[in-house]
Amino acid sequence: MTSFQRSQNTKANQYKGSLELYSPVNIPFDDSEYKHDITQQTSMMMPNYRNKMWRICISVCVFNLFSTALYIQRRHFCKKCIQSPPILRFREHDHSWKFKIVQITDIHLGEEPTTDWGPANDQKTFRLLKNILMIEKPDLIVLSGDQITANYSLPNATTYYQILGDFLSQFNTPWATTFGNHDDLDYSARPPADYYPQNKLPSGKYPPKYSRSDLLEVDQKHHFSLTKGGISNVTGTTNYKLNILLRDHVAAQIFMFDSGGGSLPERIAKSQLDWFQREFSISQHPAVAFQHIPSSAHTYHESCSGFQGEGIDALQFDAGIVPALTRTKRFAFLAVGHNHGNDYCCPYNNTMLHVCFGRHSGYGGYGRWDRGVRVYELFFENGSSNNMKWNSWIRLESGLKILS
Questions:
Q1: Contact 228, 172 (CB under 8 A)
Q2: Structural domain that includes position 275
Q3: I need a labelling partner for 193 at 20 to 30 A (CA). Which of 213, 230, 292, 401 fits?
Q4: Is residue 261 pLDDT above 60, yes or no?
């Protein structure tokens, strides 16, 4: 056999062997002359093989470590994203843009926690609110004061603010809070032995173990809370504004006022009006406002619409909140709570401003009127953001909707 023929047979058999690589059939050619070379090459390849395997293992480990680090970093980044404050926006609906607010007022959690009826009332309040919030599905919840009855609740009533915040968080709906006269009122019952101070005030009551700022801090710990603290040189704790966007620009605003009570006088002070005028002059948009205690302008008259079950207990001092809102010609309403028997709305002196009461929303506090909430729907028609309109209704615990 010539060297050329041997070369051709070798190539053919090598090709055949490659096709039958996974076949148990032996290749029928004499490879004795190659045994030495193959053995030598195999012994030389083993260290390289091991080195390659080590490199692969190290690469896999490095890749896994990198992937784990990236996953942790992304989770940390996403956590920060999740914790960013919710943004209030108008929703597009049938060629218009709508924004719904549910006003919850005077729920008075924490009354007589050592009795059977006190906690039972709290549970009834939570059931009521859950049913209504599931029906209305608001864009914002406004807590307009007297969330707790501090004078008859636990000495450290921040506990109830934590409970309330945890309850509201399950609805994934932003909320904004302002304080009422009962939220930090002096403690009337005799405190436990470890409570400090034990000395009574001249009124015969005990000072609260917390401040409005403490309640604010607990409220703000929750992701869906949009509650803000006001600046230090303005009377009250919860004086602030919120913006509502339409697409990507501010279309309306909500102003929250702290009307005092409890540790503060029941008043709207001049410093609050000065703050309001400065804030409103920055960007003048259609707006609404909330506070707890009514002004004298909230007195019922023949043009009012809704239920009147009692008179009003107005602010002890008012620097002129309603005239200030009226002069802007931009405010739709000023809504309050405080008087549990009222839920009416009234036009103010033939202007665009209305003065409204929310509906007593909880089983705490006085009164046997049916509980519920007042709902406000702000809207712009035909995609225009020039002329905001609004309507309102009462939603009772039974589910009944009353236009008012």
A1: no
A2: 88-403
A3: 213
A4: yes
